[in-house]
Amino acid sequence: IDVSFLASYCTIDEEEARARVDAVILNVESEGHHVYKCIERGMFASARIHQHPDYALVTQRFVEDEFKLLELGCCFGTDARKMIFDGLQQHKLTVSDLHDFYWSLGEQILFQDDLKSVKSVFLDFSVPWEDLGLEFQEGFKAQFDVITAMAVLHVLAAEQCRTFLQNAYLCLKPNNSTLLGYCAGATQASDWGVTPTKGLPGRIEAPRFLHSKESLEALLVSVGFIDIMVSAAPRQGL
């Protein structure tokens, strides 16, 4: 497990960092929440957003006065803290996930800090826009310059994925805005596994959907995105 970022951010030694990672995994398991592979393997100790080829372009915009960024699928908050570490002011960042369990563990155990000015909203972003409520719609429509969604789409069913991207599109500002992300995919688009309900009432288990490069491009076009760039690469070690 690479704990170098966690140790550096928290100014602790790597032994303490590993102990925090182990404590988080134990908490997730003991509370009965879904243990994703990235959690099981302790991958959340490392920030990954900076590995995206367009991350440097996003960081250049952090200095803009009215800049706003929405992180979807924030989990324990590792990428959020990486962006803050790289210069993003807290008040410009909003984080979101299905519920606050993972984010709270990040604050209480993993990082043991308090991001006082970071805004948060916890809800199912893969339901239709009208079901998200008037308060959300008024506060989030056309508000963000950048939306990130790292390792999210491949845990959704096909229709959830479409709705998720439609909602992201509506949250982006109409001009000079960007959706940035990555996900697992397949050479041929297909169902796999089951979408976890993560304990949310009414959330139906359904086959997850792995997009191909071509199917994801077509979906983004159908939602309304332009200047689309989707790249595909084989996973290392498979």
UniProtKB/TrEMBL annotation:
Gene3D superfamilies: Vaccinia Virus protein VP39
Family matches, as SUPFAM superfamilies: S-adenosyl-L-methionine-dependent methyltransferases
GO MF annotation list: transferase activity
Presence of keyword Transferase: yes
Pathway where this protein functions: Secondary metabolite biosynthesis
InterPro entries in alphabetical order: Meroterpenoid_MTases, SAM-dependent_MTases_sf
Keyword terms of this UniProt record: S-adenosyl-L-methionine, Transferase
Family: Belongs to the class I-like SAM-binding methyltransferase superfamily.
Protein name: Methyltransferase domain-containing protein
Annotated source species: Cryptomonas curvata
